[in-house]
Amino acid sequence: MKVKLTTSKGAITIELDEKNAPISSANFLAYVRSGHYEGTIFHRVIESFMIQGGGHLADLSRKKTEKPIKNEWRNGLKNTRGTVAMARLGGDPDSATSQFFINVVDNAFLDRPQPDGAAYAVFGKVTEGMDVVDAIRKVRTGTKAGMGDVPLETIAITKAEEVK
Length: 164
Prior knowledge:
The chain is mainly beta. 13% of the residues lie in helices and 36% in strands. Strands 3-4-6-5-7-2-1-10 form an eight-stranded antiparallel beta sheet.
């Protein structure tokens, strides 16, 4: 299954790995199908690390989410450039909801258990639009509403849809 995220910088197509990450893939698809991602922004961008989105609106308020899912970090998938993983709270391995991140470099340290005992679960990869991901990673960032690494220009997801 593939999902196309249309952003204010262009389109990103993500292929979900439903075989190795069935819980995370089903969770992501449920948010896509509900329209949750439309109007959310990439709220955390670190050029040498990743771009994160899926949970905040342009004013940085948090969007309501469903219950957290089980962390699938032992699925054999690695946090390499172009892979998509579930964002979660440090200290709580099973806290992922709608937020995800796209690795812009190889982040092997995310594959190793963190102090809370779990790593970060990859559930897909970008198959088209890495140029868009790279454009997003290069935007200027700063602090807004007490949050760091926030793009100074709003980078919104205007549409999220399943594609063949």
